[in-house]
Amino acid sequence: MESKTENRINECISHLDITYSYQLAKQMETHKTNPVLGFRTAGSDAEHKTGDFLYEEMKRIGLQNVTKDEFWLDSWTFERAVLRFQDQHGELHTCQMGAYQTNFETDGFETYDLVYVGRGTASDYEGLNVRGKLVLADINQRDEWWINYPVYQAYLKGAVGLIAVQTQGYAEIDPRALNAQDIAGPEYAPAFSLSRQDASYLKELLCPEDPAVSHPSSVAVELNASSWVERNRPAYNITGYLPGTAASEGDDRMILLSAHYDSYFDGFQDDNCAVSMTFGIIKALIDSGYQPRYTIAVCALAAEEWGVCDSKFDWSTGAWNQVFRVHPEWQGRVIADLNFELPAHAHNTQDAIRSTYESADFLKHFCENITVPKEAYPDGLTVLAPIETWSDDFSIAISGIPSTVNDFSAGPFMETHYHSQYDNEEFYQEAVYRFHHELYTRLLVTLDQLTLPPLDFSRHFLAMKSSVADCLAAQSNAPAEVLEEIPALLESISKVCESADLLYEKIQEINNHTVSADFPMVSGLSSKLLHIFRKMQDYFVRLDWQDAVCFPHAAASQNLCHLEQAVHALESQNITAALEALYEVDNNCYAFLFDEEVYYHFTEYILHQPKDRLMWGAGRILHHENLYGLVQRLKELDQMAIPGSLDVEIRRLEAAIRRQQAYLKDDLHYMKQSVDKIQALINDCLETSSHYNKEKNGEHQ
């Protein structure tokens, strides 16, 4: 016999209408800033109109208290970028170009000289005069460097703008593909994107394959462009609610469904299908007559792709504002966020739910009972942790809301179709889309039936323990004052893991029994659990210089390994190996490629900028080791036949090692203190749960 919960789930699933979701995704393509390419960008008129459409649709399908939640950002409108030129045969080419979040306006077609600058690094400009000219550069953002570095380098060289050609990494599906990404740089350094096919005609003029053929240093092109950025403009997250029955009893807890509605090009997968899937799921609940226990909020988020000028953390703007500025009261109330990205395409043969560590154990148990259709994912379903910074769920999680996302970042789609005009319905997979509708409807209703948020804090601490143990092994030769921090930290982690395991057992025990909502301790215990979750994010979630999630000690520990490798290499007169090691330290991989001013700009804007412009990245990169001068000096020495003594360079690296050891000592000490604080909070929850069980048992007698 099916349980009552299973009956409710099946009834909701029976009302899913995948055709509705698909058609809604297509309707979202109506408003665009560029009539040819699409684009529904942060704070633009097209984004506003799409928000208005979603606002009306939320009301139409039966959501209540629908609001346009206003916040302020830096807006971008991209109307056009058309390039014209004659190839070597005199044939006229008219090329549509993509753009980045920068300012460039022409009065119709204007003529510029264009210069090819290879990969756009500092050395590529040697012997070239690009002042007042456009420059054309090849780029591989996925495997090399981000667009902001060559763009700012071009700006410093006096170029009026850079045209980037994605040679690899992204938009590989077709030579005609364009690409768009967040600029992570200032709006006053203009940039556009050109397809490989169109760029090939320009390269034939500027750098023919036959070296015997003479070629000009520049060619005349005509550009008709309109791209503008405006600081401090309004945008709107669209939010609607399906009220929960517990609200009438004073329980104001919520579950959140989220996806972003801004896009590059038409954004069919990224992220129209995700927004429409949230609508499809909530519509099925409403149509089936399901009455949720907790209020369910559906939030169509603006400005995920970009929303802040000259910030390394310029995406997920709408989500960060929603949970930190517009609705900070959601913190401590929302027990889970189900965020969605590109859900109508199989990014691998195995599907995955990516979550924070604390939700992983619950989700793994949940997935054990899921039947995955072979036509969608032949290798089934798994759970991954932790969440990454690629999508809105990171901003939501660090606010204290346990978050998940359907995993999308590891598959080939990201290298082929992502952020290009080929993100369209031709790559729609109905079986995948249907499965995700059913999977997350089931997960939503399952979460709604729980008394407490299913948070297992030991998962986070076990990952931390492994990372600290790796640090101990890697730093076995570190000074005693550094090493002595580690045993006490590991002991505290082991102790808190035991308490966290016991607490999760209590949570499961409470969730596995049908209980009355009359117990006042339920909401209090739930709030305490969410408070611990928030503190875990505050204390332990950090980022490295490549935006990967890590623990507080990890950056210094890794830097020490690379610095020591560099010292050993220099002691053996192997400068090349030393440089390769130094490129792994923080962001010094760029120190050998671009001018010092470029390197400094994109270092300082992380370390010294207001928190509201760093948003979700504020304070999460802890240290920086500036090796620019040393790297340049070693490069010069490496070119000498006999480099001579390297004692000075070794001493500089030894000083860097001492700094990093001091950082590591402080980080480990901080982590020990923070673990002990979490221990106290968990102990308090254990005491509360014990009182709860006594009261529950007393009522049942």
Give the gist of this structure:
With 701 residues, the protein is of the alpha/beta class. The chain has helices at residues 4-14, 18-27, 45-61, 148-156, 196-206, 268-288, 317-326, 357-367, 392-398, 413-416, 430-448, 458-474, 480-483, 485-511, 521-540, 554-571, 575-582, 596-607, 611-614, 628-638, 647-700, and strands at residues 64-86, 92-96, 98-99, 104-105, 110-116, 134-139, 161-166, 191-194, 219-242, 254-260, 295-301, 334-339, 351-355, 381-384, 403-406, 542-543, 549-550.
Number of helices: 21
Please state roughly what percent of the residues sit in beta strands, choosing from under 5%, 5-15%, 15-25%, 25-35%, 35-45% or over 45%.
15-25%
List how many beta strands DSSP finds.
Answer: 17
Low-confidence stretches: none
Rg, alpha carbons: 27 Å
Categorize the overall geometry: globular
Q: Which percent bin holds the helix content?
A: 40-55%
Average residue-wise pLDDT: 93
N-to-C CA distance:
28 Å
Secondary structure class reads alpha/beta
The biggest beta sheet reads: 15 strands, mixed
